[in-house]
Amino acid sequence: MRSSCLIVALVLCSQVIVAQSQKTDWESLLRSIPSPERQREYMQRLSARPHHVGSAYDKDNAQWLLSTFKQWGLNARIESFDVLFPTPKERAVELLEPKKFTATLEEPRVIVDITSGQRAEQLPTYNAYSIDGDVAASLVYVNYGIPEDYEQLERMGISVKGCIVIARYGGSWRGIKPKVAAEKGAIGCIIYSDPKEDGYYHGDVFPDGPWRPKDGVQRGSVMDTPMYPGDPLTPGVGATADAKRIPLKEAKTITKIPVLPISYADAQPLLAQLAGPVAPENWRGVLPMTYKIGPGPAKVHLKVKSNWDTKTIHDVIVTIPGSEYPDEWVIRGNHHDAWVNGAEDPISGLVAQMEELRALSELLKKGWKPKRTIVYCAWDGEEEGLLGSTEWAETHAAELKQKAVLYINSDGNGRGFLGVEGSHSLEHFINGVARDIEDPEKKISVWKRSQLQRISTARTPDDRNEARTRADLHIGALGSGSDYTVFLDFLGIASLNMGYGGEDGGGIYHSIYDDFYWFTHFSDTDFAYGRTLAQTGGTAVFRFADADILPYDFTDFNETMHHYVDDLKRQLKAMQDQTKERNKEIAEGVFSATDDPKHPLVAPATEEVPPYINFAPLDNALDALSRSSEHYDKAAKRISHTIVPLSPEIVKAVNGKLILTERMLTHADGLPGRPWFKHLIYAPGAYTGYGVKTIPGVREAIELKRWKEAETEIIRVAAALQNEASTIESAARDLDAQPTK
Q1: Is 73 exposed, middle or buried (0-12, 13-18, 19+ CB in 10 A)?
Q2: How far apart are CA 130 and CA 93, in angstroms?
Q3: Enclosing domain of residue 140
Q4: Same domain (yes/no): 568, 620
Q5: Does pLDDT of 724 surpass 50?
Q6: Measuring CA to CA, which residue among 411, 409, 438, 414 is closest to residue 501?
Q7: Are strands 416-422 and 495-502 parallel, antiparallel or unpaired?
Q8: Could you give the angle at the alpha carbon of 80 between the alpha carbons of 307 and 669, nearest 5°?
Q9: Of 32, 223, 231, 396, which residue is least crowded by CB atoms under 10 Å?
Q10: pLDDT of amino acid 299
Q11: In CATH, what number is assigned to the domain containing residue 423?
Q12: Which residue has the higher pLDDT, 17 or 280?
């Protein structure tokens, strides 16, 4: 009897070894296929002409992608949506007083860069979704134009009411600058690129180097995406042909004041005519002049008038059916549209994704079949406000909530270190992938290279020690700014965003110089890291699609949630201490002066010290999360090496609950004032745009001193974490039922 049992066990063990060997062979084959040379060819074709939304080449690219994927034997289709997309017909920035100057608002052709001269097809330099306007007023320099800068202006007794503001790029996402300016009473906004952030301060400018030249301009959308992304006229629903659209005047994501971007060559004559106090030291760029704030005597005329048209966008969707779990979807995406030629943003990421997909198609031809359905997406309309991904996901929301297990995003690629942000239930998983990918330059794993970089750049001894000793490298949290937003924030689908960079700095973002010439001279010139991204993304897709038990892990998630709650407590304590100290200084008549003694700071009023807030509901929820994540970790490790086949019933039950874990972190009512954003743990800040606010309902309520709202949000987040803990605990108990002998 014992000998027969031993024989059965040996047979089962040999089957497991063979299966594991076959899996390793498939992975090795997958990673051997992506080709740098093919990526170069794809990029040269896709970035050959400007391909913004509504352009002929944008549609042509979509059709070419569709044809290419079909040639690889894949099931591909195009899904189209009709979206609002304004393009400018009148633009003007003029200095009226005390001197005359007219901004060129153009980027000149560079002789060695052939595609930079395709002027007839290029979108002009502008900010999409700026309201139309024709205004003239005194100019005020507002640094980055974020809330903290206006607090500084108020302390200096400077108002922007009735003025036009000029802000430099940086410090926040561009759409926040006109948003805050309008709230402060400004009637217009100009945004320029200062060479301190984006130009000669960092190195040689294009075409001699990678940095932004004096006439380079950063285009970009100023749609208020922290309110909701996607088509402004169809919030929350797909922009299909028969969708009900709200009137343009009711669209909440259009700016309230006109806004235009300009180069630093056009900005300098405006800034040079400002008087008033000298700007604080940390407000100063590196243009050859004294930075002053105003208002005036510079008086500026700003005019924006657009064609408010509807354009058709084209998402290219590829589906590889799953053989065992067809109703569980692994989704991978990168967009194909650009502001102009867009070699770096987004084509460098798209060509890597294409090679992932070609590698999978080759595996299919050799007999491999994924257990789960794989969906590859080349999105359109990302640049204008995440249009293609948002409209597709809103259209398929019900099905995605049932079936989507993972969304992996990229949005461009470069040379250097692997960067990953995402859901922390995926942190352990993506660390495992990174350990198995070789860095093409250093010939060590990309994980090890990232670890060494973090050790060398750590700000504190504790950070350095953690980078050395923690089993997994931390991944960042996701805010917004790319196509993962709708999947994570609206639908509660666990998501990752990844790409390589850090060794290819440059300043051609959203300009006519982001093209094939720039990329092949100054970025990932041999496409080695394009191949590495294809290997990384392809391996992640492969492993998630072929795992029996979905490879979520909650140990890192639990640790991160504890960190976030501790950070909220520290934030409140710091506000209390700062308010007490500030009130003390006010009472003692102690005020700091500006750098210009003629313009002292205005004495502020004392403030109420922030009250005590009850964090007990969150603490209790974290205790439950700790217990459930520990239980799940033990249960998962117990079955990870079992030679007994997993029970299909148990696999189905466990995976059904694991899919729900990210959904448990959402709330149907969304965030306060922002109902589209459903996730209670991750969201872009209302005044950061791209930048993440973790546990945003509580954090922003504290920042805005809405104490009752903060306690209400604590209760909502605690309930979500309790539900999360219960779901994880239930999955762990299901795993406990799996026999291992």
Answers
A1: exposed
A2: 14
A3: 84-309
A4: yes
A5: yes
A6: 414
A7: antiparallel
A8: 85
A9: 32
A10: 98
A11: 3.40.630.10
A12: 280
- Residue 730 is given by DSSP the state H
The verdict on 505 and 641 lying in the same domain is no
391 and 535 both lie in a single domain: yes
Number of domains in the chain: 3
Q: What angle do CA 488, 493, 497 make, to 5 degrees?
A: 55
Rounded distance between C-alpha atoms, residue 48 and residue 59, angstroms = 13
How many C-beta atoms surround the C-beta of residue 113 within 10 A?
18
Neighbours of 321 (CB within 10 A): 11
Tally of CB atoms within 10 A around 48: 18
Q: Take residue 245 and report the two structure tokens written for it.
A: 């659209």
Alpha carbon distance 550, 654 (integer Å) = 8
Q: Which tens digit of pLDDT belongs to each residue from 339-358? A: 999 999 999 999 999 999 99
Asked if residue 6 belongs to a domain, the reply is no
Cα separation, 278 vs 192, in Å, equals 19
Instruction: Report which DSSP code applies to 98.
Output: S
Is 5 domain-assigned?
Answer: no
Q: Over 50: is that where the pLDDT of 16 sits?
A: no
Strand partners, 313: 81
If you average pLDDT over residues 404-416, what whole number do you get?
97
- Is residue 327 packed enough to be buried (19+ CB in 10 Å), middle (13-18) or exposed (0-12)? exposed
Task: State which of 522, 546, 570 marks the end of a domain.
Answer: 546
**Sign, Cα dihedral of 199, 201, 202, 203:** positive
For tokens 């309309």, the residue is 381
pLDDT digits (tens, 9 = 90+) for 556-588: 999 999 999 999 999 999 999 998 888 888 888
Q: Report residue 672 as tokens.
A: 């306060």
Give the span between the Cα atoms of 684 and 485, in whole angstroms.
Answer: 9
- Residue 486 and residue 676: Cα distance in Å, rounded? 9
